[in-house]
Model the fold of this input.
Amino acid sequence: MAGHRYWRVRGLELNSGLMAATNVELREVLGGPTVTGSGTAIASSYYGGGYEPANAFDGSSSPWASSGGGAGVQWIGYDFGSGVTKDIIQVTYTGRDSGSSNQSPWFVAIEYSDDGSSWTTLFRRYTLSAWGNYTTEVYTVPSPIPLGANPHRYWRIEILSSYSNPSGASELEFAYEPGGINLSHILSFTWSWSSNYGGGYPPSQLFDYVFPPTDNQFLFASDVGTIDLDCDAEFTLSQITWYARQGFPSQSPATGRVRYSDDGSTWTTAWTFSFGSWSAGEGKTVYDPGYVPPTPTDRRRQGSIVF
Done:
């Protein structure tokens, strides 16, 4: 990939109204040294004196903190200077101390620019660990995943019936092959949903990597509903794992189906599934009974489907 003058970490989903960091490293070599130092720290905003963007690149525990603005618009970055470009393949992000660790993002976009105005997303990544005292998260340019035998851009997980009303989950995982790696925290995708029970039960908690017995959960507004995934490019969804709520395991699905679309409008059923009764916090895995292993041709690079 070609080098670029400007790089940034943009918070797509936040844990609080602010975004903050004590140290950000930009690397051209995996596990190598940061290449910042001769340029200028830049940011969407900063909270005030003592929270300047430069703090994120000076190697100290002094933080940069934004002045707020919500998800999607807060970011910290670096301008390498006129005539200087860098091909960044790995970013590390260190949050604040435990008392302010909730100011670290849990879903980020790593982006570059040649003019400091028009930005391109290189990849997006979920945080794979809970933010604690000066926790460091490492975001690496992903490797491609296989397309599988039935690749499509849009996938829908549809709950047709549940053991009680409303239906919900504490966490949701999906994979491109039975027994495969969980893509819900490393795949570049956006999601939408048919209905939501209300405050305290947002869909983002399906993918927050907080598992039972901690009862972070999503609830539909009824005992049926859909969760749609837009994966930016094509892949095959062959397995899902659904985790029941810790306190209300009966608020879990009984039957459902997995559907796909190439335009986000016309849907075709790929496979159906059913679950037996649930216990507290239990995770159940179902997969496409007609699964066909990917061929060597399927195992090729494809768009932004990466891990």
Notes: DSSP finds no helices and 20 strands in the chain. The CA atoms of residues 210 and 216 lie 7 Å apart.
